[in-house]
Design brief:
The complex is a heterodimer of chains A (about 270) and B (about 180).
Chain A (H helix, E strand, L loop, with lengths): L2 H7 L1 H7 L4 H13 L1 H20 L7 H22 L4 H63 L3 E7 L9 E7 L4 E5 L10 E9 L4 E7 L5 E3 L2 E4 L8 E8 L11 E6 L3
Antiparallel strand pairs in A: 1-2, 2-3, 3-7, 4-5, 4-8, 6-7, 8-9
Helix pairs in contact in A: 2-4, 3-4
Chain B lengths: L4 H8 L3 H23 L2 H17 L11 H16 L3 H7 L7 H7 L9 H10 L2 H12 L4 H8 L3 H20 L1
Helix pairs in contact in B: 1-2, 2-3, 2-4, 3-4, 6-7, 7-10, 8-10, 9-10
Classes of the chains: A alpha+beta (about 270), B mainly alpha (about 180).
């Protein structure tokens, strides 16, 4: 069938009306794709019929489209509701991430607290170590000063032996500077003073026997490491004695508690 | 009018704006079909709404490579209209109406809002040969097949085909082209 024959046959009019059997409709469709004249004729027929039926239509309410739009929107919403029954992986992932994030924040806060505690402990330890270092340095300085005294030619050393009646094994050593009247007394050889008692050091003039209190073996006179320093002695003493006295010391020595005694005579 | 294939594809993909343009292009022609079957403004509007809801919901079942979109929509409009006339209430209300066709409707409709020269068209369609009116009414408005129309009008198949062409061509050339 030629193009003109097809156009003149009336088949295209039936095609647009939807009145053709399926096989013939398929043939016309193929011709429309291939042939521009057939396509134009079909469009003309369609225009004519559309215009004709438009003329048979009364005025159409403008609300008609709104009703259609409402209906298809409602259908779509219901469709969405149905789909919401399926697992919403996006939301689940979001919530999981949020929970993990909060958990992470708590973990980090906890870690931070622990670290702060560790820093505090470390700071305290460092302070303690600094104090110990300071104490050691002080002690080193004191010991060096003491060593200087012992080595010095200005100081003479005397050993005060223990009183056989009271403390036969006790002893003490005295380093005395005649020029400055300063004495260092090493109490290493003395037993520890009992509670409520204190050792008191006396300088003695022998003719006549005159004891003068130099001071107490306590923290006030401590120079270093069991060595005590006594200054401002009146005269060069002829002997040194150490007695055990009640706490606070005594006006005169308690001879029954004389622990060590020794002269400065050569 | 060239078939707006891009709009149709967009509508098939769920684009409401494309659907709105399709409605603008085709609603009046389809409303004429619906009204010629239903012959009641309120029911016709409701039916037209149903037609377009069906077009939207079933848009994916239309295949651009198998036929004209208008022909596809025309079938939906005719079938939905015929369904609308099957209700008992409709049958009772319309049982005394005499048979009408598109010419009666065009002649009696107040067509002030129409874009074409309605008075001229009314005069022209009234002058169409009665056989043309019958053929176009059956094949286009009522959706008869060629065979059914031939039986109804007691004409050979070929005659139906050529008469239909000549009638439409007359419309086309005179007024509606």
């Amino acid at each position: 069938m030629t193009t003109t024959e097809l156009i003149e046959s009336g088949t295209l009019e039936l095609y647009v009306c939807g009145a053709l059997p399926q096989d013939e409709a398929q043939y016309v469709f193929e011709e429309i794709q291939k042939n521009k004249d057939v396509r134009s004729e079909v469009q003309r027929i369609e225009n004519t019929l559309m215009n004709l039926s438009s003329e048979a239509a009364p005025a159409l309410s403008v609300m008609n489209w709104t009703s259609i739009l409402n209906a298809i929107t409602r259908t779509r919403t219901l469709g969405k509701d149905t789909s919401s029954n399926t697992t919403n992986w996006g939301a689940i992932t979001g919530w999981a991430a949020a929970i993990a994030c909060v958990g992470g924040i708590f973990w980090m806060l906890n870690q931070n607290n622990e670290l702060e505690n560790q820093v505090t402990i470390s700071t305290e330890e460092r302070n303690m170590l600094e104090e110990e270092l300071e104490a050691s340095t002080d002690m080193l300085v004191a010991n060096e000063a003491l060593l200087d005294v012992i080595r010095s030619k200005d100081y003479k050393a005397y050993t005060l032996p223990g009183n056989q009646a009271v403390a036969p094994t006790a002893y003490s050593k005295v380093y005395f500077n005649n020029d400055t009247n300063v004495a260092y007394i090493d109490t290493k050889g003395l037993p520890e003073a009992p509670e409520g008692k204190v050792y008191q050091v006396w300088s003695l003039m022998l003719e006549p026997l005159t004891p003068t209190s130099m001071g107490l073996i306590d923290d006030n006179t401590l120079a270093s490491n069991g060595v005590h320093k006594f200054e401002n002695l009146k005269d060069a003493p002829q002997a040194f004695g150490i007695t055990l006295e009640p706490a606070g010391g005594s006006e005169s020595p308690t001879l029954s508690q004389l622990y060590t005694l020794g002269t400065t005579a050569p | 009018m060239r078939q707006p294939d891009e709009l149709i594809l967009e509508m098939q993909n769920g684009n409401e704006k494309a659907f709105a343009r399709i409605y603008t292009l085709y609603s009046e022609a389809l409303y004429g079909i619906v009204y010629s079957v239903v012959r009641d403004s309120d029911l016709a509007e409701e039916t037209l709404q149903d037609v377009f809801i069906k077009i939207w919901n079933n848009s994916k079942s239309y295949d651009i490579n198998k036929g004209r979109f208008f022909t596809w929509a025309l079938n939906i409009a005719r079938n939905t209209s015929i369904d609308a006339t099957r209700s008992k209430a409709y049958k009772n209300s319309k049982k005394n109406l005499s048979t009408t066709n598109f010419v009666d409707i065009i002649s009696s409709t107040d067509n002030l809002n129409k874009k074409t020269n309605s008075i001229g068209i009314a005069k022209f369609v009234e002058r169409l040969k009665p056989v043309c009116i019958k053929i176009i009414d059956l094949l286009y408005f009522k959706g008869y097949t060629q065979v059914d129309a031939a039986k109804e009008l007691e004409m050979p198949l070929g005659t139906i085909k050529t008469r239909n062409r000549n009638c439409i061509k007359e419309l086309q050339m005179q007024v509606l082209g």
